[in-house]
Structure formats: structure tokens, C-alpha cells
Amino acid sequence: MHPPTGAGAPFPPLQRQDAVNIEAQILTFIKCLQALDAGTRPEGDRFTMIGIALVLAELADIRAELRQDLAALGDELAGHRRHTNDHLAAIQSELLHRLGRCHPK
Q1: Which of 31, 82, 89, 104 has the fewest other C-beta atoms within 10 Å?
Q2: How far apart are CA 97 and CA 88, in angstroms?
Q3: What whole-number distance in Å separates Cα of residue 99 and Cα of residue 95?
Q4: Mean pLDDT over residues 31-37, rounded?
Q5: pTM of the shown model
Q6: What angle do CA 31, 32, 34 make, to 5 degrees?
Q7: pLDDT digits (tens, 9 = 90+) for 43-82
Q8: Domain for residue 10, yes or no?
Q9: Domains: count for the chain
Q10: Does 30 reside within a domain?
């Protein structure tokens, strides 16, 4: 069975040159995967430097996200602390008022 061609096809038909380029890219990709499986570094230091740069960029993103999360957490804790202190002050005031009424003079 052949893939659909023409106006209703999802992709335009491949030209021979495109097919050769795709095949070359697939072969390069397969070689890189095989090298990774074998524990070697394809293309020497260039591959390593690109990998290091990607990892450093990812770490920078994670650090930025953590800083934002920690800042938000600090704000949440401060709000909770204020809310708790307000309730504690109200409860203390009510208790002192009740004890003052019930306390014999």
C-alpha cells in the first residue's frame, strides 16, 4: 500500500534529494545513539561541549524556578504568620475578657 499523494496528502511528496538528506540525518542519529550506548563520545569535544551547555542551561532554569518558588513560599509563610498572630491575639483577648469576668474580686 502506498501513502496518499496529491492535494489530499498530509505531506508533499519527497524529492530524491530530500530523501537522501533525511536518510543521512537518520544515519547520523543512529551513529550517535550507538556511540552513546557504547559509552563513547561522537564528534569528540564538540558533542561534550554541547551536552555541557545544555545541562548548564537546564540547571539555570531550575535555579530560577526554585528561587521563584522559594520567594512565593516565603510570602505564603509570612501571610500565614500574620493570620495566625491575628487569631492568637483575638483568642487571648477573649480569654482575658472571660477570665476578668469570672475572676472573683
Answers
A1: 104
A2: 14
A3: 6
A4: 70
A5: 0.43
A6: 65
A7: 556 667 777 788 888 888 899 999 999 999 999 999 999 9
A8: no
A9: 1
A10: yes
Residue 90 near residue 83 (C-beta atoms within 8 A): no
Cα angle 92, 93, 99; round to 5? 85
The C-alpha cell at 101 is 469576668
Q: Which domain holds residue 50?
A: 16-102
Taking only the tens place, the pLDDT of each residue in 74-89 is 999 999 999 999 999 9
Residue 42: inside a domain: yes
60 in any annotated domain: yes
Distance in angstroms (rounded) separating the CA atoms of residues 47 and 98: 75
Q: Answer whether 34's CB lies under 8 Å from 40's CB.
A: no
Q: What is the DSSP string of 45-67?
A: HHHHHHHHHHHHHHHHHHHHHHH
What grid cell was written down for 36? 552513546
Q: CA torsion, points 67, 70, 71, 77, in degrees to nearest 10?
A: 180
